[in-house]
TrEMBL record:
GO cellular component: plasma membrane; proton-transporting ATP synthase complex
InterPro entries per the UniProt record, alphabetical: ATP_synth_F0_asu, ATP_synth_F0_asu_bact/mt, F0_ATP_A_sf
Keyword Membrane belongs to the record: yes
HAMAP family linked: ATP_synth_a_bact (MF_01393)
Spans traversing the lipid bilayer: 26-45, 80-104, 116-136, 143-163, 175-198, 210-236
Bilayer topology annotation: Multi-pass membrane protein
Organism annotation: Sphingomonas aliaeris
Keywords: ATP synthesis, Cell membrane, CF(0), Hydrogen ion transport, Ion transport, Membrane, Transmembrane, Transmembrane helix, Transport
Name of this chain's protein: ATP synthase subunit a
Listed GO MF terms: proton-transporting ATP synthase activity, rotational mechanism
Amino acid sequence: MEQFMVEPVLGRHIELFGYDVSFTNSALFMIVVFIALAVFMSGGLRRQLIPGRWQVMAEGAVSFIDNMVSTSIGSGGKKFAPYIFSLFFFILFANLVGVLPLAIVPGLHTFAVTSHITVTAVLAFVSFAIVLIVGLAKHGFKFFSLFVPHGAPGWLMPVIIPVEFVSFMVRPFSLALRLFVAMTAGHILLEVFGSFVVQGLNAGGPLGWLVSALSFVMIIGVSALELLVCAIQAYVFALLTSLYLHDAVHLH
């Protein structure tokens, strides 16, 4: 479970005025994600008349997010495209970096920053705060009409309004937990099958070799599934944030 442990990179904790300011593996892999994203987007800055494959991929990524905000948020959604773009590709790259097989190099192991609830919670609450700020700035106190579904009968309001309020307030928790659980579960599953491979080889004999072989096949299958989960979770997080922004911009 070393991949889930936040540890100082230099091997010891550094304290300043009583606070731990150590440079951790979590911070290191966030920088790795930032550099990977910057390198990827540098291909889109070339603006060649006949684009190469790299430029096509970068421009395709921008176009993908542009279509998402246009469809999900509607009119006025263009201004949120930079935030949705940053959100989607930070999560996607962090997820993909987290499944790199660095453990095959002795002494190294990767670190999935999105498998920590603190990181996913920050992303979720920042998104939720933007939704609140946009809604209150655009509509003022009318924003609270979001909790009153259009066309609902008046006698149901004492029930509907509390339900709508609770469903609204749990949005950041559901965003954070969905990504955190999905990434953590995949990594734990790979760890379990990896331990089965080692234990089977150590046990020896036909049964041990069979367990190792089957576990190795499962690792390949789960790894392929994990790559799909990396993309799906980034897409779901960005899409739900877009839909919440649609509610803030247009209400019901």
